[in-house]
Amino acid sequence: MSAPDRRDDIAGLVEAASVARERAYAPYSSFRVGAALLADDGRVFSGCNVENSSYPAGICAERGAVASAVVGGARRFSALVVSTEADQPTPPCGVCRQVLVEFAPLLTVVSVTTSGLSARWTMGELLPSPFTPASLAHA
After folding, report:
1. pTM across the whole model
2. Is 51 one of the catalytic residues?
3. d(CA 58, CA 91)
4. Which of 61, 106, 109, 127 is least surrounded by Cβ atoms within 10 Å, i.e. has the fewest?
5. Catalytic position from the list 51, 62, 85, 125
6. Phi, psi angle pair for 27, to nearest 5°
């Protein structure tokens, strides 16, 4: 049996992220985001943004996907797809980047729009000098 095709993984993640985006709760910004995270064991975990009238209480789609994965026992990830209705592909926000690098410093991040545009980054490109567990080591 041959190894799965990485393009198939990404296509499946695009579909899962798009479904999640449709379920987003974004009554204040109208900026709906869906995310799908591929665990190293092949499972896919989705998340959507959930806004709140107390703005800081909201959660981004990417962190929702990570939380779902952790609840499911997954802690190692290889790819993330973010789906938005924006004109241009949108990378994760800074807080999400920090959460993602905690679990997957070599993560591939793909952003897609409903118009078909896409962009791809590595975590190293998105967060070149991350604060990691190693940063907590005492001298």
Report:
1. 0.92
2. no
3. 18
4. 106
5. 62
6. -70, -15
